[in-house]
Amino acid sequence: MKVLFATPEARPLVKTGGLADVSGALPAALREIGLDCRLLLPGYHPVIAGVVNARERLRLNDLPGYGAVRLLEGQMPDTGVPVYVIDYPWHYQRDGGPYQDASGRDYPDNAWRFALLSRIAALISAPDTPLAWRPDVLHCNDWQTGLAPAYLHFAGGGAPSLMTIHNLAYQGIFPPDLVVPLGLPAASFQVEGVEYYGNFSFLKAGLYYADWISTVSPSYAREIQQSPLGMGMEGLLASRRDRLTGILNGIDMADWNPSSDLHLPCEYSSRALAGKRRCKLALQQDLNLEIQPETPLFGVISRLTYQKGIDWVAAIADRLVAAGAQLVILGKGEAHLEQACHDIAARHPGRVASIIGYDEGLSHRIEAGADVFLMPSRFEPCGLNQMYSQRYGTIPVVFATGGLKDTVEDGVTGFVFTEASPEGLWGAIQRALTVFQDKPAWRRMMLAGMQKDFSWEASANQYAWLYRLLVLTRSGNDIV
Ligand code: ADP
Known about the structure:
The protein is of the alpha/beta class. The protein has two domains: 2-250 and 457-472, Glycogen Phosphorylase B (Rossmann fold); 274-450, Rossmann fold. It has 17 helices and 18 strands. The strands form three sheets. The chain has a nine-stranded mixed sheet with strand order 3-4-5-2-1-6-7-11-12, sandwiched between helices. A six-stranded parallel sheet has the order 15-14-13-16-17-18, with helices on both faces. A hairpin with a 6-residue loop joins strand 4 and strand 5. Helix 9 packs across helix 12 (360-369), helix 10 (310-322) runs parallel beside helix 11 (335-347) and helix 10 (310-322) crosses helix 15. The two termini are 18 Å apart. The mean pLDDT is 96. Adenosine-5'-diphosphate (ADP) binds next to helix 1, strand 13, strand 14 and helix 12.
């Protein structure tokens, strides 16, 4: 089974969110179980610099709308997964992030940049692929690759495609007058096509033309068939529900392993928990919190956006401190939420620390040093930190949505609340504070979380099953 995994970001080369973690880990897990999965990535600076043994595989001299484009082939630095890289410096080698310039503004030509990624994905997956290697399945990820199934459709076929939604909030919306310049027929701009409330949506294209759709948890797969979480796509998703599957993400069990984590001042495991206490004291010291081993320490690591319920955390922060707890927030995002986090810390020196920024090492030290992890996302396709938390013996408090609901067992490995408000969050925190006083009960919850298997293997097996189904369905065989 040959799978082309087209994605705009992949760890460790380029990351803005959970999609990069998935793209770094899932292809490797698929190869472990015998599939020939290869990545396709845009050639941003860090990708060109970081891919191992990169060499030219293909040169397209006149791709309509683009001109000369090179395709390199190499391997991912840590896993050795084969990767094709689109070398088109004009679009990809820029100062700033993958989608935005250094000042946080979307690049004005993002439609062209990610249409190119989709275009190359479709080209490799077409029956007349210019490569010797032709995938059996094209696996697309998020709006940046959404045009690929449409290109394949209008080119008359090719490998069956799977469109995975990692976050439906990002829909790749552009003006309708780009449909034709980007190589799609004018007639595709309709409800039964790429049109989305008068605009042109790359994600809609993928959801409409892909052979199958998946998303990253079974609960989110159900939630997006209705308003509000369907975010305008609910009609289409509900109509395709017999081809919509939820497969939970795994986590990188080697990267996130408290017994071998080089970011930590001290290792620990479910059999030897003492090190966790030392991690807590070191964290309190590093962040200028009062050094108190018995004080419940709450952690947040998050993009600071509305989705993540950071405003609910801000609303209960004073109560949390009044109840005798400490709080650490690591995050980056919307200016007003950054300010809110900053203000909480300023009000409570020694009790609350807010670190505005992106810091991978510190994120590991918070997971290890905290007692409780707060993740009150209003919606969460899958979420990773609640799984990291359980693995690190840090009890998650989560809202009952999407992947949070599917991975945290209320009262067993964490606390799940159902009322979407600061009061709902506060109720769950009070339950956590009560159990925290009961040491044996708390320890039981920690161990229950630490012993859960969140490895990629289970997910990889489900994707492999889905790929086989796609190939069988396409070749007209009966499904048994
Ligand atoms: P999303 O993809 O919506 O941001 P996920 O929970 O799926 O949410 O994944 C977020 C990933 O990014 C996790 O690996 C998390 O630890 C990491 N992360 C988010 N914010 C920060 C930050 N400020 N510093 C370090 N890591 C962060």
